[in-house]
Specification:
The protein is of the alpha+beta class. The chain has a domain at 8-88: 2-Layer Sandwich (Translation Initiation Factor IF3), CATH 3.30.110.60. Helices cover 26% and strands 11% of the residues. It has five helices and four strands, in the order H-E-H-E-H-E-E-H-H. It has helices at residues 8-17, 34-47, 59-73, 115-120, 137-142, and strands at residues 23-27, 49-54, 76-81, 84-88. It has a four-stranded mixed beta sheet, with helices on both faces. The longest helix is centred in the N-terminal third of the chain and has 15 residues, at 59-73. It starts with 7 loop residues before the first helix and ends in a 57-residue tail after the last helix. 12% of the residues are buried.
Length: 199
């Protein structure tokens, strides 16, 4: 039987798929016998992608074993690393390991549905958006580029502070606070400087 040919991209995909597999057939010191070939054939039929551990010290001997297995069983050699051989043969009636993955069931614009709800056939509804505010004349006058100017002759910047509203914490703000004024420039008359007396 002819050896099954696969592309390098398919070989790479199969090698990554076989990474977690354990060897299912061990070839001992007696080499490749009919019983071993029969066991490899049964596992290829059952699984499609298998690992085989080959005994022996010589790499060339293992290469010859791999070629004879692929020729006898019409499978593809995926990889040979050390004493480990990876073989692939597509299974009849089963989905191929090389088939592209199924497209996602939902579009990126659709909301995520948890598995429990999806099993019941329900979906999450998208939250409705609040309607947009229409621009008022006062909003337009506060925008940059408006004709309203401050005392320095520059355009007024938009403010995030609510006019006439109390602070969020409910504590009234002192007008002469050190946070709001420079040190020594508090309202009212300036205090006389303290005199220090040496004793």
């Amino acid at each position: 039987m002819p050896i099954l040919e696969i592309t390098s991209r398919e070989r790479s995909a199969l090698r990554s798929a076989a990474h977690a597999l354990r060897p299912v057939v061990l070839i001992g010191d007696k080499g490749l016998s009919d019983a071993v070939l029969k066991e490899i054939d049964a596992n290829l039929t059952a699984h499609g992608l298998i690992k085989v551990r080959a005994g022996g010290e010589d790499r060339d001997t293992r290469e010859e074993m791999l070629a004879s297995i692929c020729d006898a069983l019409s499978c593809a050699p995926v990889h040979h690393l050390g004493k480990m051989l990876i073989l692939y043969r597509p299974q009849p009636g089963m989905p191929s390991l090389l088939a592209p993955a199924a497209p996602p069931k939902r579009k990126p614009s659709e909301p995520y549905t948890p598995k429990k709800l999806a099993a019941e056939g329900k979906t999450l509804a998208k939250p409705a958006r609040a309607p947009r505010k229409t621009a008022t004349p006062t909003d337009e006058s506060r925008r940059p580029g408006s004709t309203e100017l401050n005392k320095a002759g520059k355009p007024i910047r938009p403010s995030t502070r609510k006019s006439g509203a109390a602070p969020a914490h409910g504590i009234p703000r002192r007008t002469g606070s050190a946070l709001s004024l420079r040190a020594g420039a508090r309202g009212g008359a300036a205090r006389p400087a303290r005199k220090t007396v040496k004793r």
